[in-house]
């Protein structure tokens, strides 16, 4: 009997909870006040630097300036945010503003405001062009970049000195020559870390393909995964780095975190990394250098850029309020604070200028120079998510059999496009 | 005897009514309900999903007919995955049964410390699969792994190897771990079987002058058949469906070269839920078919002897 009572209470509890959950969806209230629901990803790695504190502070200052608009802040960690947002959308409890990793799939289901509807002219002009363009789906901007990161070439200066290498490699041949010297003179160190495992396959592949003038799509946005340039890039990797033992024995199963950890431990001499490797290297007491990424003929002028995104949902219908908030959130004061807290790269021109000139970010300088020329994944393509999943899964094995693997990937990408 | 006839013959008890008239339903009801909710409904959903077109953000875009099955069977890596699954299942189950037979025999003897060793055997069973698999994954790690260091120090290998990065070495290691975790259950099942064999039978055999080998083949094994059968069927299903070991150790990679059909189904989930569901359906059919075949075969054997 007692047990049954317990079950009943639990069921009742669950029911009430669900009811509460969906009841909060509305937002507006009788006296003209509006509550915007902001959902954001947590960039902190512990309670003390959680993004909750940042957003609550922004919300508080915003509400002080705009008393009629309240912000309901909900910060979710990276592991759960995709699933939770999916649930929110399914259950009709859609956020007004969302800051997370990708946007294109929401555009496919027509859930978002266009960027020019929720950003003032001034704020839009302030966003770095290459990033703004990466937020386009079929020529219309929906995704609003929030923070960014870019890849650059890292090398271990101490290992280079031991191997007698004077300067950072500029071309693939330089890189191979350097790797051979390192293999000969500094045993126990992996000359070049090639992380083509599921974590980084899509990034590292694109970097090498860019080095040969290739890429994932052509100018018209059609997938060109098995283009001649791409196949050649992998053939070069296969016959020069992999088969000569100048990188990991099994690149297709090596993840980025292994490569980064090895670099920070001085166990690997060269790799393509992003700014978080700076702190890791310092912690590991590795004397590192940063240089532009080597290309087939010479150092690359562009690099792979990665961005996280802000987007506004149409569901709540608070276009004006959202615009006010986003203009506030994208002011230099706020973006600078966020970027400096997490050592991330800015996406707005004024913050970029401030960070380049205020002298506090010498480490990041090589990355600042690369940002305006960053090349992105085809983020605005609504099939990119599934194509990217395929590349993560099997793309790395292209170092074993370039033509076959890339050909199969291209076929899958074309199926995905046809399915759209 | 139905409840109807009992109420008719003893009208005085009519008042008990309701519940009794339902007969056994109230007793089997919860179990049936459980099976419907936990087994039948998910199977239905799985089959239904395999005929749907679902976008990457999770929206259902209508029926796909048999497209997902067509796509699945067009996957260039599918044939090698199926072969790998068959080899994986056969090798692991055979090795497990063989080693367990020996172990059960050993633990059936009286020797000092038997109680402790019997307890020790439970350890791989008591630890979670994922924990064991991750443990082995790190022991095999190229730069920091204990096993790599130990084998290098013992001179078995020249330098640390990336065991799990290469399918040809990853498979044997994963099979080893799979056998390791299957041993306790199988050994205990067989041990229980051994203990049900009456000692009189052995005494009679001794009187008839059989040698050890004859005793084992003619008496122990035939009388162990029920236990062997249970152990084998459960292992077949378990090993065929074995997901945590492979997923924790290699994630089926590189590509799908260390994937069984179960792991492949999970890999597909990232790109296409519908195709993943189609793989599940195929898996389901395979496992049901395999067990039915096996049971048929073993019963047919029994009739022969």
Write a short abstract of this structure.
Chain A has 19 helices and 12 strands.
Structure description:
The complex is a heterodimer of chains A (420) and B (305). Chain A has 420 residues and is α/β, with parallel strands linked by helices. Chain A has two domains: 190 residues, Periplasmic binding protein-like II (D-Maltodextrin-Binding Protein, domain 2), CATH 3.40.190; 197 residues, 3-Layer(aba) Sandwich (D-Maltodextrin-Binding Protein, domain 2). In chain A, strand 4 and strand 5 form a beta hairpin. In chain A, helix 8 crosses helix 9 and helix 18 runs antiparallel to helix 19. Chain A is globular. The N terminus of chain A is likely disordered. Chain B has 305 residues and is mainly α. Chain B folds into two domains: 50 residues, no CATH class; 237 residues, Orthogonal Bundle (MetI-like fold), CATH 1.10.3720. Helices cover 73% and strands 2% of the residues of chain B. Chain B is built from 14 helices and two strands, in the order αααββααααααααααα. In chain B, strands 1-2 form a two-stranded antiparallel ribbon. The interface between A and B is medium-sized, with 32 and 25 residues.
What topology emerges from the helices and strands here?
The complex is a heterodimer of chains A (420) and B (305).
Chain A: H1 2-23, E1 34-41, H2 51-65, E2 69-76, H3 78-90, E3 97-100, H4 104-108, H5 115-118, H6 121-126, H7 129-134, E4 136-137, E5 140-141, E6 144-150, E7 152-156, H8 157-163, H9 172-185, E8 190-192, H10 201-211, H11 228-242, H12 256-264, E9 268-273, H13 276-283, E10 288-291, E11 303-312, H14 319-329, H15 332-342, H16 349-357, H17 365-370, E12 374-375, H18 384-394, H19 402-419
Parallel strand pairs in A: 1-2, 1-3, 8-9, 11-12
Antiparallel strand pairs in A: 3-11, 4-5, 6-11, 7-9, 7-10
Helix pairs in contact in A: 8-9, 10-11, 12-13, 15-16, 18-19
Chain B: H1 3-9, H2 18-21, H3 25-49, E1 52-54, E2 60-63, H4 67-74, H5 78-108, H6 114-126, H7 129-139, H8 146-153, H9 167-196, H10 199-207, H11 212-240, H12 244-249, H13 261-269, H14 273-304
Antiparallel strand pairs in B: 1-2
Helix pairs in contact in B: 3-14, 4-14, 5-9, 5-11, 6-9, 9-11, 11-14, 13-14
């Amino acid at each position: 009997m007692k047990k049954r009572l317990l079950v009943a209470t639990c069921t009742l509890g669950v029911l009430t909870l669900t009811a509460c959950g969906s009841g909060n969806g509305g937002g507006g209230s009788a006296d003209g006040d509006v509550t915007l629901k902001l959902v954001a990803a947590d960039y902190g790695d512990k309670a003390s630097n959680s993004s909750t504190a940042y957003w609550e502070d922004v919300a508080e200052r915003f509400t002080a300036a705009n008393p009629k608009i309240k912000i309901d802040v909900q910060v979710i960690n990276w592991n759960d945010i995709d699933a939770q947002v999916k649930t929110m959308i399914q259950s009709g409890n859609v956020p007004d503003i969302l800051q997370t990793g990708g946007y294109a799939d929401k555009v496919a289901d027509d859930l978002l405001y266009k960027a020019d509807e929720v950003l003032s002219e001034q704020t839009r002009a302030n966003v770095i062009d290459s990033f703004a363009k990466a937020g386009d789906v079929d020529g219309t901007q929906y995704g609003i970049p929030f923070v960014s990161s870019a890849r650059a070439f890292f090398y271990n200066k101490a290992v280079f000195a031991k191997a007698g290498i004077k300067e950072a490699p500029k071309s693939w041949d330089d890189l191979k020559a350097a790797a051979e010297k390192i293999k000969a003179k500094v045993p126990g160190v992996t000359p070049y870390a090639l992380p083509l495992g599921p974590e980084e396959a899509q990034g590292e592949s694109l970097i090498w393909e860019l080095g040969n003038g290739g890429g994932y799509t052509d100018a018209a946005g059609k997938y060109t995964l098995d283009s001649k340039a791409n196949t050649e890039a992998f053939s070069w990797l296969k016959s020069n780095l992999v088969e000569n033992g100048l990188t990991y024995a099994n690149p297709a199963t090596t993840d980025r975190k292994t490569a980064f950890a090895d670099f920070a431990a001085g166990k690997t001499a060269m790799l393509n990394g992003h700014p978080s490797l700076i702190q890791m290297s310092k912690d590991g007491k590795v004397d590192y250098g940063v240089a532009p990424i080597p290309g087939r003929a010479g150092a690359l002028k562009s690099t792979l850029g990665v961005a996280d995104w802000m987007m506004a949902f149409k569901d709540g219908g608070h276009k004006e309020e959202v615009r006010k908030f986003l203009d506030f959130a994208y002011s230099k004061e706020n973006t600078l604070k966020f970027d400096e807290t997490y050592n991330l790269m800015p996406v707005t021109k004024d913050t970029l200028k401030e960070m380049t000139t205020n002298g506090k970010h010498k480490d990041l300088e090589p990355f600042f120079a690369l940002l305006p020329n960053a090349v992105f994944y085809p983020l605005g393509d609504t099939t990119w998510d599934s194509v990217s999943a395929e590349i993560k899964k099997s793309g790395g094995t292209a170092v074993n059999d370039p033509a076959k693997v890339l050909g199969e990937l291209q076929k899958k990408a074309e199926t995905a496009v046809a399915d759209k | 005897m139905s409840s109807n006839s009992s109420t008719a013959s003893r009208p005085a008890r009519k008042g008990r009514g309701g519940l009794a008239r339902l007969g056994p339903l109230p007793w089997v009801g919860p179990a049936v309900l459980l099976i419907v909710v936990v087994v039948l409904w998910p199977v239905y959903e799985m089959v239904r999903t395999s005929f749907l077109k679902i976008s990457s953000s999770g929206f259902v875009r209508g029926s796909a007919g048999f497209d997902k099955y067509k796509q699945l069977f067009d996957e260039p890596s599918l044939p090698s995955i199926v072969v790998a699954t068959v080899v994986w299942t056969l090798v692991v189950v055979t090795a497990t049964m063989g080693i367990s037979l020996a172990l059960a025999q050993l633990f059936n003897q009286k020797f000092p410390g038997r109680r402790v060793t019997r307890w020790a055997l439970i350890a791989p069973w008591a630890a979670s699969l994922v924990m064991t698999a991750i443990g082995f994954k790190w022991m095999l790690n190229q730069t920091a792994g204990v096993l790599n260091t130990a084998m290098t120090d013992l001179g078995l290998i020249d330098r640390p190897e990336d065991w799990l990065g290469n399918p040809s070495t990853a498979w044997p290691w994963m099979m080893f771990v799979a056998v390791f975790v299957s041993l306790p259950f199988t050994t205990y099942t067989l041990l229980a079987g051994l203990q049900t064999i009456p000692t009189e039978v052995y005494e009679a055999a001794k009187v008839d002058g059989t040698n050890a080998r004859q005793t084992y083949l003619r008496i122990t094994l035939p009388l162990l058949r029920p236990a062997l059968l249970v152990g084998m069927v459960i292992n077949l299903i378990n090993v065929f469906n074995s997901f945590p070991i492979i997923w924790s150790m290699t994630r089926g990679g590189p590509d799908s070269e260390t994937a069984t059909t179960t792991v492949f189904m999970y890999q597909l989930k990232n790109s296409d839920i519908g195709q993943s569901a189609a793989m599940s359906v195929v898996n389901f059919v395979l496992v049901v078919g395999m067990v039915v075949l096996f049971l048929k075969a073993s019963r047919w054997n029994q009739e022969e002897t």
